[in-house]
Amino acid sequence: MKKKILKLWQSSFFKNYFILITSFCYLELVFRLISKLEILDLAEIRIFLGLNIMALVLSFIISFFPKLIAKIFNVIFILFVSIYGIAQLGFKNFIGTFISIQTSSQAGAVISYFWDYIRSFEIWFYLLLVPFILLVLYYIFLDKKVTLDMPKRSNKIQIATIKCFQILLIIFCFFGYFVSLKADFMQNKTQALTSYDLFKKPTNPSLVVNDFGYMGFGILDIKEHFFPGKEIDYEVSYNPNEIPNTNIVLPNEEENKFVPRAQLTINNDDWKDIISNENNANKNTLNKYFISNDITYTNPYTGMFEGKNLILIMVESGSNIMLNEELYPNIYKLYNEGWTWENYYSPRSTCSTGNNEMSGMTGLYSIFNNCTANVYRNNTYFESIFNLFNDKGYYTNSFHDHVDQYYYRTQIHKNMGSSKYYKVTDMKIKYGPNYGDWASDDDMMKFYLERLDERDVNVPFMSWITTVTTHMPYSSLSTYNDKYIDMMPEEYSKDVRRYMSKMKEVDNAIGTLVNGLEERDILKDTVIVLYCDHYPYGIANKNLTPALGYEVNVDNNVDQVPFIIYNPDLKHKVYDEYSTYVNVTPTVANLFGLDFDSRLYMGSDILSDEYNSIAVFTDGSWKNELGYYDATANKMNYYTEKVYSDEEILAINEEISLKLKMSSLAIKSNYFNYLNKKLDSYAISTD
């Protein structure tokens, strides 16, 4: 028996196959354990078949080469897939998403904070190097000892027979693999996208990793980059007779202003004609979806800020740490005297700052696996927050105290409708050329106030301000990392204290802004809206938990950040609805009484009676009062005794999946530019 095993071991094909398949299985198993994915999952069958295909094909190919080349290949390949796995675990832990080829435009940003990225690795990640280490040790110390007299060379017929058997084995595994893509028993009952959908179009890395393994995702990611799959078709129900009437007007001031009125501005007759005459299938899918989309109605909040100025601030790397009266009195003033939402989240995406800024401006979901703001920077959005205020006669502008190093804001903000965009070089304020030395947000606010002094006082203004001082890294000495560090609690880790030191500069900036508005006697006529692009992901979760006072690793709690609406005349109120940045534009539009069509947004007015309280995360996970649904693991964690049926979870997932799909398709096709031109042509013909 021993001799038979040794003879089999001398076979180049079998030996390489055994080395590869055992290494692959170990790597995928450890990866799932660290990622807290289900181990006893039917997806494991598909993953195992995929690993077998990869091991069989590679073994078949390298069996034609000398043994030394085969050894070198095995060592290099296993090292590569091990490092790739560690990088994926690190990226998921650090950024919140898996690495994709589609995000290559952010390579410079990743390199800039490379050491912070490496420092964030958990010790368990390095367990993926075990197969590589064992294989090197085996080749050095044991391989030559496991020898046997070589059998006589097989004749050509025997070799051909063995090769045919190997090819048939590969074909059998391929057949089983593709059966697993469509077999009903291999599909999750609550998952909106089937395994076959994900195989054709791996748009959601988290779901793909769960269904195909991290190595399977890597292969599908390469396939999608060079041979993009066809967009998944969705049936959009459209009944022209059920489209809401747009010809209802607001009642007179003497009457009840808040009778239900659909917030619709697009003439449905024109839109129906566009649908009738459109031959492009994707365009018409979007037309039918948006014209039939959910609508909101006027409510007691409609127009309560009409005519006031707006300053919308997106805080870089914000978190609930800033809600500290002693350390950050200016931010706390806005929080404690204005409106705030305690269940507000800023889900991380592939390029969280640029994408989440774009989502805040447009009410759309960004595309999960690319830097949407950059890739589609030439798009225009007539329904963006800038253009809504432009249409109302406001002067709009925007500010960010950095250069276009990571995002093409000079172009993006212009196409969003900002009348004037100021970057750090326009502000003539100090900023360090090195990554760790960001500009001061306080200096930016002083520059901003100077621009207010130049304005036409008879024209209301709307400004978008994106801060930068709190940007990572937090691991090294820099101006703002250490400026206020002595004020910060010593029981926190040094990276948290440095982050808090930077946040102090942001708080100073808010103080400068509020005081400046008050000195100019325009504070009462100005509304400040504040949200955050993402939590400070340069800090390990284990260090954030003590500072935040709750466990951040549970149910995406790490993405929970403040959302504040402030005006000195407001009465403080805390709302408990679940929400994200996609709701910013429609909520603001309703509060300011702007003319907007609520059907054009994936988000909704948070204050409307029709609002569905839910926070949707980039991988399709979601959270509401009942619990948290983890789309990657297909699990529901309940907070109440009430539970959903599988059918109810599937219905929610299908609605979310459709919104993500339609948003993605609209951005890719520059749909709103197309729709605006079509509507303009109808308006001209009507006139």
Characterization of this structure:
It is a single chain. The protein is α/β, with parallel strands linked by helices. The chain has two domains: 2-187, no CATH class; 242-686, Alkaline Phosphatase, subunit A. The chain is 46% helix and 8% strand. It is built from 24 helices and twelve strands. It has helices spanning 2-10, 12-35, 43-62, 67-94, 107-112, 114-119, 130-142, 156-182, 195-200, 205-226, 268-277, 281-291, 329-337, 352-362, 372-375, 385-391, 409-416, 424-427, 441-453, 494-519, 541-548, 584-591, 646-668, 671-686, and strands at residues 309-315, 339-344, 395-400, 421-422, 461-466, 526-532, 564-566, 573-579, 615-616, 622-623, 627-630, 635-638. The strands form two sheets. An eight-stranded mixed sheet has the order 4-3-5-1-6-7-2-8. A four-stranded antiparallel sheet has the order 9-10-11-12, with no helix packed on it. Helix 3 runs antiparallel to helix 8. The chain is globular and about 95 Å long. Mean pLDDT is 89; it is low at 147-152.
